[in-house]
């Protein structure tokens, strides 16, 4: 009897083991099937995503090239008498509007374009704008822009929203001549420098080796580089391309731009109107707030730069030194409303 019970127990135990093995094998097969399905789905989605990106890039290139060709043909001014100033003015206004629409199309498309293709397209836009201005100036002559030195405003008006004027010792005319050649403002201490749209529009600007300066660039540059600056206030109008900041300490920078990239910077606040996410690297103790500087030509310059004043990603920042996805980088913060600068 005892032997029969033992045999029955052994058989039951064997059946349980076999059942467990079957369940284990079934689970493994199910997991393998799910893994294969998941991998196939991921590969399919990646493939589809790549196709969509390639299709968008291809559409962009065709439309962009067609528009460049159209604007270039319009510059021939076919059928317009060289002496008809009114007709020429309206014609060039139409050309500038076409360029602005193309710049906006580029800004909206840049997120899915390869970096090299984006750089080439922006350079084409810059060169085309230079060609438009040159052709317009040749066909519709106007008085050359001249700079007038003014007495520096008193300190109690320093923080008004009006653009500060420049004193006689600031060398503004020399700066303007350099900027027209694509040079930089460099090596200045405790100076106030103001350049307007006649000087900065569609230019690549560089600010470097500045200490304790106030710089106001009231126009729509193509690109701005800020290098090795300390204790400075820098206010820039809408930039159609990127703003690059490197080795900046204890500064306040206000700008509108397509992209902001910050390196080796600390104790600095940014007031932004930016289309894409800002990028920081090797940077600490920086704050962000929305762009709040205003001046009479701001709306026109936003259009000229192809920026949308209503779309602002000022509080979206990617820190390339902070890889944790579940927590915010400690290297940047949003500036509290009560601590934001309102007067420039």
TrEMBL record:
It comes from Phallusia mammillata. Keywords: Acetylation, Chaperone, Cytoplasm. Supercomplex made of cofactors A to E. Cofactors A and D function by capturing and stabilizing tubulin in a quasi-native conformation. Cofactor E binds to the cofactor D-tubulin complex; interaction with cofactor C then causes the release of tubulin polypeptides that are committed to the native state. One of its GO terms (biological process) is post-chaperonin tubulin folding pathway. GO terms for molecular function: tubulin binding. This is Tubulin-specific chaperone C-like. It is found in: Cytoplasm. Residues 171-322 form the C-CAP/cofactor C-like domain. Belongs to the TBCC family. InterPro entries: C-CAP_CF_C-like (IPR017901), CAP/MinC_C (IPR016098), CARP_motif (IPR006599), TBCC (IPR027684), TBCC_N (IPR031925), TBCC_N_sf (IPR038397), Tubulin-bd_cofactor_C_dom (IPR012945). One of its GO terms (cellular component) is cytoplasm. Residues 33-52 are annotated as: Disordered. It holds the Pfam family TBCC_N. Residues 42-52 have a biased composition (Basic and acidic residues). It comes from the Eukaryota.
């Amino acid at each position: 009897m005892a032997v029969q019970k033992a045999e029955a127990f052994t058989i039951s135990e064997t059946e349980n083991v076999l059942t467990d093995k079957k369940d284990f094998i079934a689970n493994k097969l199910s997991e393998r099937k799910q893994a294969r399905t998941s991998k196939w789905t991921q590969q399919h989605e990646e493939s589809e995503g790549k196709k969509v990106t390639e299709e968008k890039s291809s559409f962009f290139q065709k439309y962009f090239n067609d528009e460049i060709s159209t604007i270039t043909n319009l510059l021939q001014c076919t059928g317009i008498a060289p002496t008809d100033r009114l007709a020429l003015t309206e014609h060039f206004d139409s050309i500038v509007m076409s360029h602005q629409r193309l710049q906006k199309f580029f800004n909206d498309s840049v997120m899915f374009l390869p970096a090299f293709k984006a750089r080439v397209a922006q350079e084409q836009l810059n060169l085309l704008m230079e060609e438009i201005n040159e052709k317009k100036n040749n066909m519709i002559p106007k008085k050359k822009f001249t700079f007038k030195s003014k007495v520096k405003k008193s300190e109690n008006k320093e923080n008004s929203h009006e653009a500060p004027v420049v004193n006689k010792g600031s060398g503004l005319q020399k700066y303007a001549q350099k900027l027209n050649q694509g040079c930089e403002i460099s090596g200045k201490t405790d100076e106030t420098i103001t350049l307007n749209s006649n000087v900065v529009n569609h230019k690549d600007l560089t600010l470097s080796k500045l200490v304790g300066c106030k710089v106001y660039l009231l126009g729509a540059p193509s690109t701005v580089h800020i290098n090795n600056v300390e204790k400075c206030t820098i206010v820039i109008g809408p930039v159609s391309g990127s703003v690059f900041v490197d080795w900046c300490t204890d500064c306040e920078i206000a700008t509108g731009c397509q992209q902001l990239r910050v390196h080796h910077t600390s104790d600095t606040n940014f007031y932004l109107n930016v289309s894409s996410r800002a990028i920081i690297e090797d940077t600490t103790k920086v704050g962000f707030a929305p762009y709040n500087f205003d001046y009479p030509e701001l709306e026109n310059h936003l259009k000229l730069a192809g920026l949308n004043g209503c779309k602002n990603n000022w509080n979206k920042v990617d820190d390339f030194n902070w890889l944790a996805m579940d927590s915010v980088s400690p290297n940047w913060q949003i500036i509290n409303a009560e601590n934001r600068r309102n007067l420039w």
